[in-house]
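Table S2 (continued). Query chain:
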Amino acid sequence: MRTMRPRRITSALLIAAALLTPMRVLAQPGDATTASSLFLAGRRAMDANDYAQACPQFAESYRLDPAIGTLFNLANCEDKIGHLADASTHFRSVLEQLPTKDDRAPIARARLAAIEPRLSHLTLSLDPDQPAGAAVARDDVPISPAALGVSLAVNAGDHDVVVTAPGREPARTRITMKEGEHREASLHVGPKATSVTSHSAPVTGTYEPAQIASHSNESARRTLGFVLGGVGIVALGAGAITGIMTLGKASIVKDPSHCSAALRCDATGVDAASAGKTLSVVSTVTIIAGAAAAATGVVLVVTSQDKAPVTAAFRVSPGGVRLELGGSW
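Corresponding output:
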């Protein structure tokens, strides 16, 4: 027993040294001062068992100033919160960067060996009969065709899988993985798209109101123009508001406390990404409709004294937007 005690003390000291010091090995451009502050903040959060706070701080510190000690701390933090796939990847990176005879290498190797039996693995595959152009994304990260059918390590918890294809609605599936679970999932594309507002296609089309007939009452025609103009202004305002909301959702996705640099997001980040896509489409369509109504209102007001019929068409395509007017002037 007496011979084992010094070894335990030595091992504990080595682990403490590996965790408490950033230990930069490669000089790379970045904000080293901010990185150091984030590292120390992460250590304080770890000491308080606040891993949800510590992990993003270590991740941002490492992004700003890569250091083995910071990466070691990040891997340790991810292990604590159950993000075993991320922890495994980062412990492997630590081992790749450490010199072979470095005293910290056995520690990282032991941590990695303890994690590997607990890893969850998910195999995603597309049915062979799926249409050309079908693509798969897991947690908003595209899965390359080469990775389909391959057992990939994933963190335990919920994973949102989306299959997209030209002319099809997105097919969404949520898969919940348990620690150490191995699962296979065969995916299929969604039904044929029925709306031009599908996320996988640009917003295109034509706004063509019925022919604007000549009114013997010039005042009525002018009033109608002002009404349409007012409706258009309100719609443009609504489009601007939803556009601002879209930017708000984008800021959540960019927040390292919700989404990592590799775009691995928690539930808040996933919801923000989904809502942001919807708001973006709503904003675009609302602005288009508002501009069309406002333009038609202007035409009515300007031509209120004319007797000949006037037509107006508002066309939207990937190449741009244009208003087409017809009639006698």
